[in-house]
Amino acid sequence: MPIAKANNLDIAYRVDGPENGPTIVMSNSLMSSMAMWDWNIEALTDRYRVIRYDTRGHGKTSVTPGPYSIELLAKDLIALIDSLGVAKAHFVGLSMGGMICQYIGAHFSDRVLSLSLCDTASEMPPRSLWEERFAIANSKGIQGLVDGTIQRWFLGGFISQNPETIAKVRQMILATPVEGYLGCASAVRDMAQSTMLLKIKAPTCIITGKQDPACTVDQATVLHRLIPHSSLTIIDQAAHLANIEKPEEFNSALRNFIDSVS
Questions:
Q1: I need a labelling partner for 4 at 20 to 30 A (CA). Which of 72, 96, 125, 218 fits?
Q2: What CATH number is given to the structural domain containing 195?
Q3: How far is CA 228 from CA 72, 101, 146, 221, 222, in A?
Q4: DSSP label at residue 144
Q5: Are the CB atoms for 116 and 251 separated by under 8 Å?
C-alpha cells in the first residue's frame, strides 16, 4: 500500500481507475479504514480516478497524540492531494469523512469540483454521549465499543442476514487504534459547522440512510437547507453505513450525481 508523506504524517492511500480520469477522493468514517469503500469502488472506476486513504489515527496512517480537530483532518487531506499532484477533485465523505469534506468545501473551495456528504451532520451533540464512549475505550479498548457500533451502523435484519460482511466490518473496527479513535472522536464531538455550510459553493449531493440513528434524516435536512445548490437522497432500509447496507442504491445516487457535474 502506498504511503504519502503529508502534513507531518505517513498517510496510507490507494488509487484505482484510469490515470487520466477526473479525480474522486473518498474519506472514511470514524472507526473504519479505506476498506469501507470496497462496496463502491467498482461503480466509479470505469471513468474516474478514485483516491482512498486512511484518516489520521486509523488504518495504516500515523497515529499522533490527540485530540484532533476537523480542521486538522481536512488539512491532512489537502496535504495528501497536494502530494499526489491533484489540483481539484470530487470529494466524497461518509460520517466523519463527510464532516471533513464540509470543511474543505467551505475553506478550500478552489480545490472542489463537487461534494457528496453521506450519512453525516454538521454538529454531533450531546457531549455526554462521547464521554461515555471515551470511558469505555479507555477501560475496555475498541472491543468494548464494537458491538454497539455495528448496531448503529446497520439494521438488525442486515446484521443477521450478512454475516460475512459484518465479520469484515468488525475486523475493520477492531483494527482501529484506541488513541486514533479518541483523537478523531474528539474532533467529531467538538465540531460545530452549521454556519460554515453557507460558505459552500460547489454542487453538493447529500445521501443518507432513512433509519440512520447516528446522523439522522433531520441532520441531513439541515445540511440540505443550508448548503446552496444541494440535493438530498434518502435511502430506505439503511442505517449509518448506507454505502454497505444498500450499495446498489448508494452507488447509483453517487454516480448519477458526479456524472451530472463532471
A1: 96
A2: 3.40.50.1820
A3: 25, 15, 37, 12, 12
A4: G
A5: no
Please answer whether residues 51 and 92 qualify as being in contact, where contact means their C-beta atoms are separated by less than 8 angstroms: no
Buried b (16+ CB within 10 A) or exposed e, 182-218: bbbbbbbbebebbebbeebebbbbbbbbebbebbbee
Integer Cα distance of 192 and 178 in angstroms? 24
Residue 127 pLDDT level (bands cut at 50, 70, 90)? confident
| Long-range CB contacts for residues 248-252, cutoff 8 Å, separation at least 24 | 250/40, 250/118, 250/207, 251/39, 251/40, 251/43, 251/44, 252/43
- Output the nine-digit C-alpha cell for 165: 460482511
Q: Which domain holds residue 99?
A: 3-261
Binning the chain into helix, strand and coil, the percentages to the nearest 5 are 50, 20, 35
Query: What 3-state DSSP class applies to 65?
Result: coil
pTM over 0.70: yes
For residues 67 and 1, what is the distance between their CA atoms, to the nearest angstrom?
27
**DSSP-assigned letters across all residues of 191-226:** -B-TGGGGG--S-EEEEEETT-SSS-HHHHHHHHHH
Q: In the structure grid, which three cell numbers stand for residue 108, read together?
A: 478550500
Grid cell in block for residue 15? 488509487
Residue range 44-68, pLDDT digits in tens? 999 999 999 999 999 999 999 999 9
Average pLDDT of 61-85? 98
The edge-to-edge listing of strands for the beta sheet with 204-209 is 3-6, 9-16, 49-53, 23-27, 89-94, 112-118, 204-209, 230-235
**Would you state the pLDDT for residue 125?**
79
